[in-house]
DNA sequence: GCCAAATTTAGCGATATCACCAAATCCGGC
DNA sequence: GCCGGATTTGGTGATATCGCTAAATTTGGC
């Protein structure tokens, strides 16, 4: 369910086919699309996709348009643009927006293969990291409101006494919550907790204030 | 000593002058160079530089060549390329290597100004972050070998007893070092220490092993 | 209204940490 | 050989944390 998939998008049937065949020589599964909208419609493919090989100029939604849509969906996916009509501003814009590369047709086949391989590798690493963050985030989300409050105090380096004072509750209660936080986060030291929590980009803006 | 400086590099005197004058309308100090090598030779300018406006095609060292040199020197500096002869592979390469933008001549003056302003702002933020990291790193470097060992244990979440056991010393010694670590790092809680230390990308590869 | 979960508080004993103190030893440089 | 910093160990008392158990109260949903 997490196999790398390469999606090729080009409105030219011949080009699409030849690129697909070429990339398949890497041993990677390839799915091809005739338009950018077809890609957006295929959620399954988007989930599996580790790399997008995208023609810039296409009828309907352009390659750059698709890039923008995906970006807005918070769907970080390495995109390799391929174009015969690329001009400087277009390339610069695409790259600024995070494109993985921009190749000009006719391109060297080996270059495309190399870039695709790099992109897939990059995406795989990115997915692994994302999965780990999601796991941690899930643990944090499993905390109750009060437990979150206490965790904030712990990460801030406050003593139980100070946390209790800040929340207007007794030290014993804080101890109780503290123990449950450690349990739910599956850590057995404050240091581990802090590393976990700062690792997911936590700061103190979830839903607590004290 | 940390004033933003914009460096303009172009072998064409007229272009160099007009770009310099244009950028100066932003109220930023500008220094212009006729060749890439001149920039590399001016260490003072490189220190002050918050942004490089660089012609790609120049006799001697090219703009891309300069970018590569600076990159190898570990000198992260936002570079805005300006070129009349930009082709797709060149732009893609420059952007992949971290260029801030790539503008084609003749360019819209306002676009250049906007990008320069963004780049300077970016560089300023980057410098601030770098300065902070350097400050923390200096504190960590001021630790003695043994103190570093103990700090590693603290960040790893080990108890003083375990650290002592691992290092083959008494708990009392660990407590002593621990106190000095907190003092030197200027923190007053373990949580703060961990945040500081993981913030500088520390992991356990400095010079300790236990 | 009842049930389940969340929140709250408590006691107790074992451990750990903290903040002082003082001092012996070791090692490299002048 | 002497000096200073680094490393080491010890004492003592106050505080804090940990792990366990137990239970009262509140809250929200069926």
Quick gist of this model?
The first copy, chain A, has 210 residues and is of the alpha/beta class. Chain A has 10 helices and 5 strands. Chain A folds into 2 domains: 5-128, Rossmann fold; 142-208, Winged helix-like DNA-binding domain superfamily/Winged helix DNA-binding domain (Arc Repressor Mutant, subunit A).
Shape of chain A: elongated
> How large, in whole angstroms, is the Cα Rg of chain A?
24 Å
Largest sheet features of chain A = 5 strands, parallel
Low-confidence stretches of chain A: 206-210
What's the SSE pattern of chain A? EHEHHEHEHEHHHHH
CATH topology of the largest domain in chain A: Rossmann fold
- Please give the number of β-strands of chain A: 5
| Mean residue pLDDT of chain A | 90
Q: According to CATH, what is the class of the largest domain in chain A? A: Alpha Beta
Strand content of chain A: 5-15%
Number of continuous helical runs of chain A:
10
CATH superfamily of the largest domain in chain A: Response regulator
What distance lies between the first and last C-alpha atoms of chain A, to the nearest angstrom?
Answer: 43 Å
Query: What is the number of domains of chain A?
Result: 2
How are the strands ordered across the major sheet of chain A? 2-1-3-4-5
CATH architecture of the largest domain in chain A: 3-Layer(aba) Sandwich
Helix content of chain A: 55-70%
Largest interface: A-B, 28 and 28 residues
Alpha-beta content class of chain A? alpha/beta
Q: In oligomeric terms, what are we looking at?
A: homodimer
């Amino acid at each position: 369910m997490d196999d790398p998939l390469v999606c090729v998008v080009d409105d030219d049937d011949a080009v699409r086919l030849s690129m697909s065949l070429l990339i398949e020589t890497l041993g990677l599964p390839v799915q091809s699309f005739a338009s950018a909208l077809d890609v957006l419609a295929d959620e399954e493919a988007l989930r599996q996709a580790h790399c997008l090989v995208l023609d810039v100029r296409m009828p309907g939604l352009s390659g750059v348009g698709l890039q923008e849509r995906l970006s807005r969906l918070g769907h970080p996916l390495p995109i390799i643009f391929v174009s015969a009509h690329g001009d400087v501003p277009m390339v610069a814009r695409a790259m600024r927006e995070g494109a993985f590369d921009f190749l000009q047709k006719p391109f060297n086949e080996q270059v495309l293969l190399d870039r695709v391989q790099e992109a897939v590798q990059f995406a795989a690493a990115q997915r692994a990291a994302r999965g780990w963050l999601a796991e941690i985030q899930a643990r944090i989300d499993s905390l109750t409101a009060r437990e979150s409050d206490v965790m904030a105090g712990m990460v801030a380096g406050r003593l139980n006494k100070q946390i209790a004072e800040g929340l207007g509750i007794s030290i014993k209660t804080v101890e109780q919550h503290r123990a449950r936080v450690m349990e739910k986060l599956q850590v057995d030291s404050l240091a581990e907790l802090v590393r976990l929590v700062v690792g997911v980009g936590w700061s103190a803006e979830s839903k607590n204030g004290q």
